[in-house]
Amino acid sequence: MSTTVEAAPNAVRPLATESVSLTGSQRLMDYLSLMRPRIALMVMITVSVGFLLGRQGEPTTAQLWHAIVGVVLVAAGSSAFNQWFEQTTDRRMRRTEDRPLPSGRMASAEVCGLGLTWAIVGCSYLAWTVNPLTAMLAGGTFLLYALVYTPLKRWTSLCTAVGAIPGAMPPVLGWTAAGQPLDVHAAALFGLMFFWQFPHFLAIAWLYRDDYASAGLRMLPGVHPQPHVTGLLATVYAVCLLPLSLLPGWLGLGGNAYLVVAFLLGSAYLAASVLFALQETRRSARRVVWVSLVYLPTVLATLALDHILGLTAG
Questions:
Q1: Domain 24-181 class?
Q2: Which of 295, 161, 253, 215 is nearest to 10 (CA)?
């Protein structure tokens, strides 16, 4: 995820009605771009953690892969549909103007069709190979992201809070894919993911505030942010995250090792957010982003490992 801020181009590319001629490798790269591979990788990791935490015995590799394939397909459909809906605004931002649709390498109908197909196939696959609850939750996640969060970005900065809901669902989907109900454990995993997103995305939005404003997207903090407000909001969410991140340990999903790591990294995340609030600069915003990217995989990996070691010891 790049954090380089560049001025948005003045010219807006015309809408493409058909894709340009591409080689097979170029077409494959554009398909991967539609799927947003970095997001897909994070979805794979978080689904896997949720699944491993939900398994009471030895995890079944086939079941886990069924869950990963289905959820990643739905996530890919969400990403493609998002790019189809935002093709006009993507043309106005330097960091997105080379995506398949704004660049004219893919046609609008093709991208929309791919997004819907991937989402439908993913939900159907989950219903067939995993369970109906996971399929319904995945379908609801797609609808909330594609049909609520994406349009809201043009109307209100509250879109960030709405978008954090589907963003927090992958570990919950992994949990239900393992046969577990929607209970307090699922809520704890959801809360960790939900609150982690805010300092991360607020810092990114601050870095790209000019780009977002030029595209007409109502993302916090806006083109003329009030000093320290974005950093203060990031700090508030980091404060909330700290005790919530300890809940999985208190509920028995992890042990003391997890509690220590979650507390230390949560404190580091909070400290980075406070420094961002005190002095909103590109350096402090980038620090929040990088700490967030260290925090999530480390905390989740520690939770999964601590859980597995606890089962082995038991």
A1: mainly alpha
A2: 215
